Amino acid sequence: MKILLFGATGMVGQGVLIECLRAADVSLVQSIGRTALDQQDAKLRDVVHRDLLDYSAIESQLEGFDACFFCLGVTSAGKTEADYAHLTYDITLAAANTLARLNPQMTFVYVSGAGTDSTEQGRSMWARVKGRTENALLKLPFKAAYMFRPGVIQPLHGVRSKTSSYQILYMLTRPLLPLLRAMLPATILTTEIMGQAMLAVARRGAAKPVLEAADINAIATTAG
To answer: Cα(223)–Cα(41) distance, rounded to whole angstroms?
Structure first.
């Protein structure tokens, strides 16, 4: 498989990249981001592209991919709904619309979040915006599209969050997360599980397009 990866410098993206590079059936992982990755691998191609709303300059480098794992995201803390929508909905759909046109046989996997509001009418701003983003993605003419809705994710294999507040939280809860994960395996995921589940749905699909934490865990467990 040939995989496009957005958000490879973020916590989830780092974990997904590790799993993609480990997978025997993945021949190429192409990262798209504003900054270069501090990593090299024979399977990895890193494309630096600063305008995440316009891909016309690199369209020739976006063709021929089997799957896209869109792990790019920001926290809604301190942002207006307009600002958060721009960084969440606008940027995601700019990429997805381009890829749907260039790769109609692609499987598109979007990292959303637990509590996302598919009605787009709820009281939570971030959940409405995520719901609008999911709904728009599911209307695009991809071979398949899957919305991943994880809650708590335990970083493994040296993966770190770029968000300082999250990193502090993970440092404080690090001794407890393995225990909680053992007690609640269908609720608390890991970056490894996220990557394995994404690869699994790219290979074989899933029974439904919106996948909650328990679904993601089950897919990864079956794949393993």
So the answer is: 24
